[in-house]
Amino acid sequence: MDTCLRDVCAAAALSAVAVFSTPALSHSAEDVGVRVEDSLQRFSRALFGFGNPVAESANTPTNTKPGDLAVEVAGDLRVRVISSKVGENADMIALWPDDANPTHAIICNEINGTAAGAAASVQRVRLSDGQVEDMVFGLQSCDPARRTPWGTVIVAEEAGPVGRLWEILDPLNVNGVVVNRAAGTSSDPDHVVARTALGQLSYEGIVLLPNGTTYYGDELRPADGKPGGGIYKFVPGRPHGGGPIDSLSQSPLVDGLVYVMRLGLRSGPMDFGQGTNTGAGRWIGPLSTATDLATSALAAGGYTGYYRPEDMEMDPIAAQNGVLRVCWTNTGNDTFEQWGEVMCMQDEPTSEADFNTRTIPVVTPFIIGDPHLRMPDNLAFQPHTGILYVLMDATTSAEDPDFTNDDVWACLPDGADRDTLSDGCVRVMTLKDGNAEFTGIQFLADGKSFLIHLQHRTQDGRAVPHTTDMLLVSGLQISK
Question: Is residue 245 part of a domain?
Answer without folding.
Answer: no
